Amino acid sequence: MEIVKVENLVKKYGKDENEVIAVNNVSFTVEKGEFVAIVGSSGSGKSTLLHLIGGVDRPTSGKVFINGKDIYSLKDDELAIFRRREVGLIYQFYNLIPILNVVENITLPLELDKIQIEKDKLDELLKVLGLENRKDHLPNQLSGGQQQRVAIGRSLICNPSVILADEPTGNLDSNASEEIIKLLKESNKKYNQTIIMITHNLEIAKMADRIIKIEDGKIV
Amino acid sequence: MKLLHKLTIKSLKLNKKRTIVTIIGIVLATALITSIATLVSSAYKSYCEYVRETDGNYHVKFNDVPTEEIKNIENKDSIENLFLTQKIGYSIYSKDNEQANIYFQILGFSENAMQELGIKLVEGRMPESENEIVISQNNLDIKENANFEIGKEVELNITNEEEADNNSETTTKNYKIVGIIDVTDENIEKDYMEENNITYSTIITTLSENTETYDVYVRYKNVINFIEETADILGVSQEEFNQLQGKTLEETSENLFFNKSNKYTYTINSLLTIMESGGFGYSVFFMIYAIATIVMIVIIISSVFCIRNSFSISITEKIKEYGMLSSIGATKKQIRQMVFYEAFILGIIAIPIGILLGTGLIYLFLKIGENLLSEYLYGIKFIFSINIWMIILSVVLSIITIYFSASKSAKKASQISPIEAIRNNENIDITNKTVKSSKIIKRMFGVGGDIAYKNLKRNKKRYRTTVISIVVSVSIFIGMSSFVNYVSKIQNSYYNDYQYNVLIRPSNYEEAKKAEDIIRRLGEKRYIVERVAYAYCINGEEHYSKDLKDIINDKEFNINPDSSIDIYSLGNEGYNDFIKELGLKYEDVKDKAILIDYKTGFVTLDGNEHYKLYRMYDYEEGDTLEIINVTQNDETLNIEIAEVTDKRLMNIVEYGDNFTSYIIVSDEMMDNLLYRDARCAVYINSDNDRELEEKLKNDYDFAYVGNIAETEREEKAKSLTITIFLYSFIVIFALIGITNIFNTITTSMELRQREFANLKAIGMTNKEFNHMIALESLFYILKSLVISIPIGIILSYIVYQVICTNIEMNYIFPIKEILIVIIILCILIGGIMKYSLNKTNKQNIIETIRKENI
């Protein structure tokens, strides 16, 4: 089953002479439960592509379907709601909300939807993430690896159609990196979770089911 | 070191937005300090100039100085200017050779006396020879007295006796009238001197050579040496002079002192002397200085908050840079110096702009104020004055402000460790606090409210800056507003609030009756036909109140009341209105008296002096007054008191500091008490006072028609100028508060851009986001109000205590100010948040998240 479908996606920045084509007519699909790695050198347009898939940016032309829905036909607020239900985002710099503790950060997308959290599910997730003893800690009291695990927890909490990870290990040492990738792999297996991950580390990319290579905005 | 400086300048250029915000902060602070300084020095200059013009440009007047001694005074080094006047004589002038009705004092003025003393030429020119005169129009209606028009010759019988009457020895002299003047100095001619149908006026001519004595007006070069120099001229020691003087300069205004040891009697132009020696001795100016000092301190404190915010943001931006520098070996001291260098560069740019802006604003303010208010200012000019010392003070204060703003950031920057900087952890202090009430908040306001509330609880530091800046602004605003309220209340209480404006003085009661008919025909409804009989209370001293006894016993006042009592009737209409106001019935009171024996003045209470309203007698309703009617051949009378009141109808009866009390009786009763030709007056409260005055003057032939409102307006102009200056302080305060709050909130919003973008990336809709920010604003407002309103109330009470120690006045709860503050705060913070939101909502989420420097 196709969970993500990208159709002739184009993203341009700037105008006329300064025009930069970050994503140049890219099309591909991702099946449910697939773990896809996108690799490419810096400036190749891989991050832009990921953000376009995640609905946090808007393309110049082309379409993105998630779970069969054309996400760019939605209005801003509808897109925001769609995002919090169907897309989980993980960034290089974790981007947690500094004033919220571990549990609050993880459950934030559910809170936004006013959905009651199932305690069992939360406890299980915390166990998987290895954060049982850190529930009440604030982001600045956690290590980088722990913070990234919170971010993963946040993206997993509402069973999104797809998790998009933008260099999730870019800021971590090799031990922590390994742990994070293991965690992603585990959730991919355990919950049949679709994951699209950007990395420029080929070692890490090899752990994915499929590798998409991008250069100058095009798939090669 | 040079390289580090270059680096600083480069990064200032790179972060243009931040640099500009900081510069604006410093410019505002400097501009505010400068504007206060300029405002104070302008107010001071304007008031000095006004006093010089109205009261005369001299410090002391020595009376009757023999001609040969003038040289001695003139030759003193300490004298800047000296001019002479001379009492030529007095003259009683009869308009139609029947009744004496104008009493002139004739003065000789030297040429510079004409310029420097408080007289203004209205028409014509000043006299150039002993045969030419100018006439004061203050009390004398020139239009009514055609004999005194410019160009006419008058023959005057002049006498040397001050208490002249028709039998005095006189010489006759012919004068040519060359001009009309207005006398503003009350030492030369008092306003509205009119008694028994005699008008008092002044004639000024040139000095005549053949006199033995002159009045010498002296202006010292340096008013600081006033006591020394004056004592020297008087030929007494400074100690003796101080004894002559009594306590303060302000109290001795107009007093003449006779003493064997001093050569001359003298009059001090006390207000000018006080003003020119800095104005500290003049209570109003002392208060202005006090407020200015408080305002400046507040500006500095709030500016430090505001500028420090900008600095700490710029430090956050440059954390990596500082970390890098310290990793390659820059010492803590060097990094600290970099921050101060940055502050120095910013100051060099911002302080001059601030000074120009501040002085420019005050210049505009004064010009616009003068134009808008010219009608009410009656010749008071706003003088724009830049005092170089004030500017230097502003610069120093601005530098202090910047120093305090930068010093904490400098310390912080120097403590950044390389590792920390490279990791670039969130550098906001957050306390991990279990937030209890969040469930209620969540239920009430949803998840947005929950996050907003947690923000408030856990990130105290961030909130603190904003809340403190609001608290400072709000509480000071409340305190300052009550301050201005009290001051302007006291100011206004100096002047009687007359409720009538046009005054007719008919020559007898018949004419008064006629006047009543006329004004009724002209459609005027509010008027009083007043008649007065003079009397004394028999055994009045036995009924003196405790307050009055205290005053009599207080030697300082040297008062001896004579139990005099004036009997007033108000005409039927006026009387009925009056008793209606008091809730009395005509039939019950027509044969009785309504006693008004309230006075205002200083009364000793528990050893302290209080300025208050007190009663002179202890008579109560139902008591009988025994009086001697002076007007009716000293006939004794017994009148029952129907009511004791402090109400004054149209304020014709003044509280005053004389010790006469008043009774109001019905017309019927007055008919029995008076000869018909007693003193009468008709007071009218007209909506078109100027029109009515013109009509009465032109179409009818009354002895005197005047417009009290005009004089009143002139008096009020003085207090208005001071009130304007006071209120401009408030405006400046509000401005500081607003800019401060604006700056703090916008910068704090900017600091949180990434957090906001994050929330949106997770899937918060714009609506939810706006809701959250709105709630956050609400929390800001509530929290700051909870702190600042009690502080404001306490401040206003302190202000009340300080100002009203000597003056009986009730504490006014600043409810109006509080409401204003709440409304302004809601609008302001709502507006600022909306502005910041618009900016945030426009930004691309992903670009914001990836931005390293926010």
The end-to-end distance of chain B, rounded to whole angstroms, is 27 Å
Percentage of residues in strands of chain A = 25-35%
General form of chain B: globular
- Counting DSSP E segments of at least 2 residues, the number of strands of chain B comes to 22
CATH homologous superfamily title of chain A: P-loop containing nucleotide triphosphate hydrolases
CATH topology descriptor of chain A: Rossmann fold
Biggest sheet layout of chain B: 6 strands, mixed, barrel
- How many helical elements of chain A? 7
Enumerate the strands of the largest sheet of chain B in spatial order, edge to edge or round the barrel: 2-3-9-5-7-6
**Regions with little confidence, pLDDT below 50 for 5+ residues of chain B:** 246-260, 424-428
Q: How large a portion of the residues of chain B is in β-strands, by DSSP E?
A: 15-25%
Largest interface: A-B, 35 and 31 residues
Query: What is the N-to-C succession of helices and strands of chain A?
Result: EEEHEEHEHHHEHEHEE
CATH architecture level-2 label of chain A = 3-Layer(aba) Sandwich
What does this structure look like?
The complex is a heterodimer of chains A (220) and B (854). Chain A is of the alpha/beta class and 220 residues long. Chain A has one domain: Rossmann fold (3-Layer(aba) Sandwich), CATH 3.40.50. Chain A has helices at 46-54, 76-86, 102-112, 119-129, 144-156, 174-190, 202-205, and strands spanning 2-13, 20-31, 35-39, 61-66, 69-70, 87-90, 162-166, 194-199, 210-215, 218-219. In chain A, α3 runs parallel beside α5 (144-156) and α5 (144-156) packs parallel to α6. The two termini of chain A are 24 Å apart. By secondary structure, chain B is an alpha+beta fold. In chain B, 53% of the residues lie in helices and 18% in strands. Chain B is built from 25 helices and 22 strands. Chain B is globular and about 105 Å long. Classes of the chains: A alpha/beta (220), B alpha+beta (854). Chains A and B meet through α2 and α3 of A and α13, α22, α23 and α25 of B.
